[in-house]
Amino acid sequence: MNITCLSPSNPVELDCLAALAHQLWPHHSPEELGTEFCSFLSCGGAVFAAWEEEQMVGFAQRSLRHDYVEGCSHSPVGYLEGIFVLPQYRHRGISRQLLSSCESWAKQQGCLEFASDCELTNADSLHFHLACGFQEANRIICFQKEL
Questions:
Q1: Residue 129: which H helix or E strand, with range?
Q2: How confident is the model at residue 10 (pLDDT cuts 50, 70, 90)?
Q3: Is 50 helix (H, G, I), strand (E, B) or coil?
Q4: By percentage, how much of the chain surpasses pLDDT 90?
Q5: Rounded Cα–Cα distance for residues 115 and 66 (Å)
Q6: pTM above the 0.70 mark?
């Protein structure tokens, strides 16, 4: 297993990333995700990818957040924006390796805290976060209405 940091100038990597991200966020098209990741990477964001030989099998998107992060008292905060591993590669420690890469990067940026979130109904993500040492900071339900 090889973990690399992706480059915005590599279209093959971006296509692989967009295809995986579409499985995590199916309400967005791969093309839309590819455009968003290119912009994200070009503006200083980073994505770590897990490779099994020539195949991208997982990714972790991380960023620095300077605004308020639920449960955190420092700024900036390293933030796990998304993490995904293909189902057939799960339970091999790949997600933990990707998370560890993100946390190491955040420490190098001077972060004292690392945070993440998941949907209230995503029990798999909740279990993953708790198993990796995260502590639940809060639960919220967001509201919206059109005017």
A1: helix 123-131
A2: confident
A3: strand
A4: 84
A5: 12
A6: yes
Q: Which tokens sit at 95?
A: 């997600």
145 is written with which tokens?
């209405």
Which DSSP helix (H) or strand (E) runs through 22?
Answer: helix 11-24
* Cβ burial, residue 43 (10 Å; 0-12/13-18/19+): exposed
Residue 131, number of CB atoms within 10 A of its CB: 10
DSSP state of 137: -
Chain position carrying tokens 């057939």: 88
- First-residue to last-residue Cα distance in the chain: 50
What are the chain's domains? 2-131 (3.40.630.30)
Q: How many CB atoms lie within 10 A of CB 84?
A: 22
pLDDT for 86-117, tens place per residue? 999 999 999 999 999 999 999 999 999 999 99
Residue for token pair 């993490």:
83
